[in-house]
Amino acid sequence: MKNKEVILGVSASIAIYKACNLIRELQKQRFNVTVVMTEHAKEFITPLLLGRLSRNKVYSELFDKQADFEIKHISLAQKADLILLAPATANLIGKIANGIADDLLTSLVMAKRCKVLICPAMDEAMYTNPIVQKNIEKLKSYGYKFIEPEKGMLASGQIGVGRLAEVKAIVEEVKKILK
To answer: Is the pTM value of this prediction over 0.85?
Structure first.
C-alpha cells in the first residue's frame, strides 16, 4: 500500500516556520509530503529548506519554464490524498473562497478532487474581520475543513486569536481525515 500524499500549501505568514516541524511530523506518520508555496512565502523561507525536509521537489510556479509538458496544478491535484494549507493567510483564504486561481497553489485547490484542510494564521484584527469570517463560512459550506487558530502571542507582539494551531493538533486532524 502506498503512503498517502499530503500536499502542504504554505502562504506568506510568519507562522511559516512551523511548516518545517509539520513536514517532519507528517513524515513520522508515514505520509509523503509535497510542498507548494506561494511566491510571497519565499520571502519568509526558501524552497531549498522545505525541499530538503520533505525530500521532494517544492513547487511554486504556475508555469514551469523547463521543457516539462505536465500541467502541474492538475497532476498535483490528481496525486493528492489531502491538501493541507498551513499557514493559510487571509489573502489565500479570500482567493479560494472567491474562485481566484492566479498562482499554482490556488489553481491546485481549484483542480482538487480530495479534501482540503485549512489552518489560518494571521493577526486577530484580520482573522475577526467580517470579510475573512464570511470567506471561512463560505468555504465551510463547500466542505472545506478548518482547524481554528489559537489565542496567543502574535507577530505584532499583541496577544490575540490568530496563531497557527499547534503542529500536533494539525497532524491529528490529518490522520483523522486520511484514516
So the answer is: yes
